[in-house]
Specification:
- The protein is α/β, with parallel strands linked by helices and 491 residues long.
- The protein has 20 helices and 24 strands.
- The strands form 6 sheets. Strands 1-2-5-11-12-13-14-15 form an 8-stranded parallel beta barrel. It has a 6-stranded antiparallel β-sheet with strand order 16-18-19-24-21-22. Strands 7-9-8 form a 3-stranded antiparallel β-sheet.
- A hairpin with a 2-residue loop joins strand 18 and strand 19 (424-431).
- Helix 8 packs parallel to helix 11 and helix 17 (328-339) packs parallel to helix 18 (373-386).
Length: 491
């Protein structure tokens, strides 16, 4: 069954397999896949499955900023714990540390048998500086010369294979270039065809791709980032966007193949229009983190198609752990928000255990952290509750919170929305503040009858309330700091 609001779990493949003492994907038992299915996951994103070049690790993975992040994340880390960035891909073949291509296909088939689809990485912007493509397909990269290199040696580099050749490192224009990478030239049709061919190959190995920094390949962004080399070597802006060409081509081969964009800079809508099924919603994370309650409410009232294609998350491998960023109680309130709205609901391995330490992607192991049982129990209950069809197939509507008394402004701190599917309904209320808040809410109730039976699924408490009072004044709600209700009832 296809759901409007699918759920996805990100797993750091190399770290997770090592932690579980699995030598390859083959050793993951069906019981683990069944557990993911029982928790309601539609997609598992196995992050970091592609081959990297280990020979470049010693040169590029021990710069001071990275070493500082290793020290913070893993007190007893050793040199052998540094296994390289999974985002500096040398080639799109399965990393032998996790198995073979046959292992990956078999794992995908087992996932599919439980109704789960496999998502893998597509790093559109660059390859590893250690890729053999610099010898065999060097025309797909952004070229440079000695002048560019001498004037900006952090962004440009001399080929390790041919001393008279120079290229650009991959980069985000807001930051310094990633020196362990080489930039793909999206103004070269040859490069576009090469990357589309990679995507075509991936369609036989997985069910979708999470596209790293997808906005960097947009024509205007790419032109502004690389205008110097593009002008010097006379590369013209293409008429069409790469993503339009790539997604259209792949969807013609396999309509159900999913494209998820890591996206920022308010370019999410543009990427959705180019064919992306889902795009990151960093705006929601930032507003929840900064307690911008009015901003969150306004954000969730945006156009429905945009909402359904937004990826809702409060942590991932790039962001601080939510238990650390928000604090425990607030993080659970934020989790209730993202779990009960429209869009793709994104969770990160370790989030359910309340982990607080963000792990650099270059490390192979993580610091031991004791499981926070209250956090884990809350998440598992939340996942079970929101697995119901009403959250997956129903109609969502934000409900206005009303003031209880003249001097009480706490109603502004409460989020409220209703889900309806057939005769099932859920009313969600979340106090997103550190003190008790009160409000009244008017929402859709049965046309007939005098009393409404409300069962709070989160707190296992039942209530009976007057339907007439709900219609005229609204349901009275009082919630302690960062607490929530998820009421179920029949229409």
């Amino acid at each position: 069954m296809l759901y409007n609001n699918p759920r996805i779990l990100e797993i750091n493949t190399r770290v997770w397999l090592r932690k579980k003492n699995f030598q390859s994907l083959n050793q993951i038992p069906d019981s683990q896949i069944e557990e993911w299915s029982n928790l309601g996951f539609d997609y598992i994103w196995f992050m970091g499955i592609w081959k990297i070049n280990k020979d470049i690790i010693s040169k590029y993975c021990f710069e001071s900023g990275l070493v500082s992040s290793y020290n913070e994340a893993l007190k007893d880390w050793r040199k052998e714990d540094v296994i390289g960035s999974p985002y500096a891909i040398s080639e799109y073949t399965v990393n032998p540390e996790i198995g073979t291509e046959k292992d990956l296909i078999k794992f995908k088939e087992r996932l599919n048998s439980f109704g789960i689809k496999l998502i893998v990485d597509f790093v559109s912007n660059h390859f590893s500086i250690g890729t053999d493509l610099l010898k065999t397909h060097k025309d797909i990269f952004v070229p440079a010369d000695e002048y560019f290199y001498k004037n900006d040696p952090h962004t440009f580099f001399q080929s390790p294979y041919f001393e008279d050749e120079y290229y650009a490192h991959g980069r985000d224009p807001l930051f310094l270039a990633w020196q362990d990478t080489v930039q793909i030239n999206y103004f070269n049709p040859t490069a576009r065809d090469f990357m589309i061919n990679i995507l075509q190959n991936i369609t036989s190995l997985a069910d979708g791709v999470r596209c790293d920094m997808a906005m960097l390949t947009l024509n205007n962004v790419f032109n502004n980032t690389w205008i110097g080399p593009l002008r010097k070597y006379d590369f013209k802006k293409p008429e069409k966007e790469f993503w339009y060409e790539a997604i259209s081509f792949i969807k013609n081969i396999r309509q159900d193949f999913i494209f998820i964009a890591e996206a920022y800079w308010n370019l999410e809508w543009q990427l959705q229009q180019l064919g992306f099924d889902f795009t990151y919603d960093k705006t929601l994370l930032d507003r929840l983190s900064n307690d911008e309650i009015r901003g969150v409410k306004d954000h969730l009232n945006a156009e429905e198609d945009y909402q359904k294609k937004s990826v809702r998350f409060i942590e991932n491998h790039d962001e601080p752990r939510c238990a650390s960023r928000f604090g425990k109680d607030k993080s659970l309130a934020a989790a209730t928000v993202i779990s009960t709205i429209r869009g793709m609901i994104f969770y990160h391995d370790g989030q359910f255990e309340g982990k607080k330490i963000k792990l650099p992607v270059q490390l192979r192991r993580e610091q031991f952290e004791k499981v926070d049982e209250r956090v884990q129990n809350y998440y598992y209950k939340l996942l079970r509750i929101t697995k119901a069809d009403v959250f997956r197939l129903g109609k969502w509507k934000q409900v206005e919170t009303l003031q209880v008394s003249e001097n009480d402004s706490t109603y502004e701190k409460i989020f409220a929305w209703q889900w309806i599917y057939k005769n099932e309904s859920r009313l969600v209320a979340i106090n997103y503040s550190g003190s008790t808040s009160r409000c009244r809410v008017k929402f859709s109730v049965p046309e007939n009858g005098m009393l409404l039976n409300l069962f709070d699924e989160l707190n296992s408490v039942s209530y009976e309330r007057s339907i007439e009072e709900i219609k005229e004044q609204g349901l009275f709600i009082e919630l302690k700091a960062f607490s929530s209700h998820i009421f179920s009832f029949k229409l």
